[in-house]
Structures are given as C-alpha cells and as structure tokens.
Design brief:
Layout: H1 4-22, H2 41-45, E1 93-95, E2 114-116, E3 129-134, E4 140-143, H3 144-149, E5 153-160, H4 175-179, E6 182-191, H5 192-199, E7 207-212, E8 219-223, H6 224-227, E9 232-237, E10 240-241, E11 251-253, E12 266-272, E13 287-288, E14 294-295, E15 304-309, E16 320-329, E17 335-341, E18 349-350, E19 352-353, E20 363-371, E21 376-384, H7 393-400, E22 414-416, E23 422-424
The chain binds the ligand Nc1nc2c(c(=O)[nH]1)N[C@H]1C(S)=C(S)[C@@H](COP(=O)(O)O)O[C@H]1N2 and molybdenum atom (MO).
C-alpha cells in the first residue's frame, strides 16, 4: 500500500513530468501542458463549441425510465464484440472483447468474450440442477437455491481462451483480433472446496470431471488440487447474474487455467481417480511438439501482455506526448513487472503498474512517451511473480515448432508509421 511518502514522491515525479512535457511543445500541444487546443477563430463559429452554450443545455434531457436497463451512449455504437465475419459463426463460435476500446481492468458484461461449442442454451434456473457424484461419501443434487445458501465469495480474475491467438491464422489487425479471447470480471459464487466437502471426498479422488448442460456437453477433467484451492462455482459476474453467454445460471471458474476448463452451464461434477480423456483434452487443447509428442493438461496460461493504446487500427494524431497503456496477466499469479520497448526491442523501460495488482487478474500498465514522429515499433513484455518472462514469437516457435495451435503467449509488437497509423508489426 502507498505510504504518504510515496504519494509525495508521485506528485514530485508528476510535476517534473508535466514540466518536461511542457518543454515538448509542438503542434496541438499548448505551452505549459501536454495536450489541448488553443481557442481559434474557427471554433467561435461552431454553435456547440466554446464560448457558445451547446444545444443540449437548452432543453431538459431524456426522462428517467426511458432505459430501465442502461446501455452505453449512442456515440459508442462501434464499441461492440469483435465477431469474425470470415468464420461460420453458428454452433462453434467466438466473439472477442474490443480490448483496444476499454480502460482499466474490468470487462463490462456486454463485452465479455464468448466462446461456445454448440450455441448458447436458454436455461431456466428453476429447472437447473448440479449433480455431484463419483468418489464421494454422499452423492448430492443441488438446485440454485441450495448453491446460494453456501457462504459466498467474490474475486477478480481474468479468463482467457488457450486459442488466443492461433498464430497460423492470418495475423489480426487489432489488439482484439490478436488476444481478444480474454476478459476480466469480478466473480461471485462459492468455493468448490466447500461444496466437495459437503459430499465428502473418498480415498483415491484425484480428478473432478465437469460437464456442461449445453448441446456440446463440454467435458473437462480438473486435478483435485485445483478443486481444493481457488476453484469456484460462479453465479454472478460484475455484480449481476451471469450472462447466458457466460454460463447462466452456474459455471465452473478455474482462475489462471485455460478458459476451456471453466465449464459453463455446469450440470455435473464426477469425482474420479483418472481423467476422462474427453475430446477437449485430447484432440483439442493439446499442443503437438516437434518431437511428435503432444503436450496435454497444460492448465496454466503463461504470462502475457499487450499494448492496447496505441494499438492496431488506431492513429496517433500528432508527434509529442502519448501515454502507452496496456494489460498484462499471468495464470501463475501476479504480474511482477511489465517492460516496454519503443525502439523495436533494442532497449526496455519499466512501465508503471496501476493498482490493484491482483493474482490471476488483468493488470493495467502505463508508460509516458514522447513520439518524435519517426516510424517506430513498440511492444510490451510481462514478467510474473515466478520470474517467467513473456517470449517473442520467434523464441516460442523455436521451442514449439510449426505444428502447435494453442497456448500462444508471444509478444505482439505494433508498428507506428510516420503518419501515425498503427499496424501489426508481425503481419
Ligand atoms: N459448457 C461449455 N463450457 C465452456 C465452453 C462450451 O462451449 N461449453 N467453452 C469453453 C471455452 S473454449 C472457453 S475459452 C470458455 C469461454 O468462456 P466465456 O464464453 O464466458 O468467455 O468457456 C469454456 N466453457
Ligand atoms: Mo477456449
């Protein structure tokens, strides 16, 4: 936590920073500040601009009740899930979070990424049940009221699909195209450990096989250690009930594990001695290595980061001050450090981490930057609390070979052209 001395230090740094920023005056930068526009003759003629009173101040606004469930400003219509048009988006589908349009670390529920294998089922919570059986003393069936009677807990965790991205597909243009199968929310539910204790685990219980109530009956085997650690049965997301796309009314949430294991629309938990070797843990979500073996049950998502501003599809308006900002995360725990390079990876500077820095949650980083207007490549790399360093794509390919598909946590650099256009530097 920040001590008063840190705050003072912050303010000193900030004052110095603003002074130095003021020295970089050029273009739209006004003397003494970083950004802002001088009042000019042109603005005087525009009716809604200073010094005029804008039209929206002249009559009362929309009445209360016209939107019982709020929606974003009509001017933010472009900020929607990124649903690829070149993929048949029907049963097996995905919609990505527009990471480049968001601030902070929490994904609004309407923009949470979605990935499903047989569409989104419509489940009446009154008819939904969770069955718990197998190597337990007392097999149990819970309805949603039973689940809600357990002591609850809330945690902020990211969720990421392990196919985020698949490097063999054409490279994406935006941060969302590349790693938008990633979101972060505050989840509320019950500790899976409590529920398992209610049934009583028998000797030999090593795995819990989870099954979803969708037409895919998506099934994954979860090691018992995870089930007795931070695994949750979740019914709420950012304060409200789960969205249907996120598994309403109940999902499994395995912090830091590949998204596929957080089974949505959860209907069954079978405690077993062995994994079940389902489709999703054999033919899918495994990585074929150069020696012909396949990595399976990899579980944890390794440390990763991406600059979201400026990022692909955006445009720098002018040389001068720009804040570089992005997100970092690690399935293994907290992000310890994020380095940013503004010279194509030759040198790296430590970015500032925005509090809170939480375990297995997105962490926002920022770096003040002065762009001199020349073409440049910028990129970020995350280091987590295990000291693991996010690799470049070349480093990853050297180990994994050309046949892998999942678990790509490579650095994604952005190229900025002299006109300010930002594009994928690896495309
Ligand atoms: N029952 C069920 N659970 C599921 C899936 C599914 O299709 N059916 N998709 C999985 C995959 S591949 C991912 S990445 C996450 C996506 O969760 P989200 O749609 O809430 O973002 O859910 C997982 N759980
Ligand atoms: Mo996934």
């Amino acid at each position: 936590m920040s001590e008063p001395t840190d705050i003072n230090e912050d303010m000193r740094t900030r004052r110095r920073f603003l002074r130095e920023g003021g020295a970089l005056v050029s273009g739209v930068v006004v003397a003494g500040g970083l950004v802002g526009r001088k009042a000019s003759a042109a603005t005087d003629t525009a009716e809604n601009l200073p010094p005029n009173v804008p039209e929206w101040m002249k009559t009362p606004g929309d009445p209360m009740g016209s939107q019982p469930y709020g929606t974003p400003s009509s001017f933010e219509k472009a900020v929607v899930k990124n649903i690829a048009k070149d993929l048949p988006q029907y049963l097996s589908a995905s919609g990505r979070t527009p990471l480049q349009d968001l601030d902070g670390i929490i994904t609004p529920n309407g923009l949470f990424y979605e990935r499903h294998h047989a569409g989104v089922p419509t489940i009446d919570p009154a008819q939904h049940r969770l069955m718990l059986h197998g190597l337990v003393n007392k097999p149990l069936i819970f309805d949603m009221d039973d689940i809600r009677r357990f002591p609850s807990e809330s945690h902020i965790y990211f969720l990421e699909c392990s196919g985020n991205p698949n490097y063999k597909k054409p490279y994406g243009k935006t941060a969302s195209d590349l790693v938008g199968l990633l979101s972060c929310a505050e989840w509320t539910g019950v500790s899976l450990k409590l529920v398992l204790q209610e049934a009583g685990l028998q000797a030999g219980a090593k795995w819990v096989v989870a099954e979803g109530a969708d037409a895919a009956a998506l099934t994954r085997s979860v090691p018992i250690e995870k089930c007795l650690d931070d695994a949750m049965l979740v019914y709420s997301q950012n304060g409200e009930r789960l969205r249907p796309q996120q598994g309403y009314p109940l999902r499994l949430l395995l912090p830091g594990f590949e998204g596929n294991m957080s089974v949505k629309w959860l209907r069954r938990l079978r405690v077993a001695a062995e994994p079940t070797y389902s489709r999703e843990e054999t033919s899918k979500y495994t990585d074929l290595m150069p020696d012909g073996s396949a990595r399976e049950f990899t579980f944890y998502m390794e440390a990763k980061s991406i600059i979201t501003r400026p990022s692909g599809g955006q445009q720098l308006s002018a040389p001068g001050f720009h804040e570089i900002s992005g997100i970092a995360w690690s399935g293994r725990g907290k992000v310890k450090r994020v380095d940013v390079s503004v010279d194509d990876g030759k040198t790296w500077q430590e970015a500032r981490l925005q509090e809170p820095v939480l375990t297995r949650a997105l962490t926002r980083f920022r770096l003040p930057w002065h762009w001199d207007g020349k073409p440049v490549v910028i990129q970020s790399r995350a280091i987590d609390e295990t000291a693991y360093v996010q690799p470049t794509l070349a480093e990853l390919l050297a180990v994994r070979g050309e046949d892998y598909y999942y678990h790509n946590n490579a650095i994604w650099p952005w190229h900025i052209a002299a006109d300010g256009e930002v594009t994928n530097a690896l495309a």
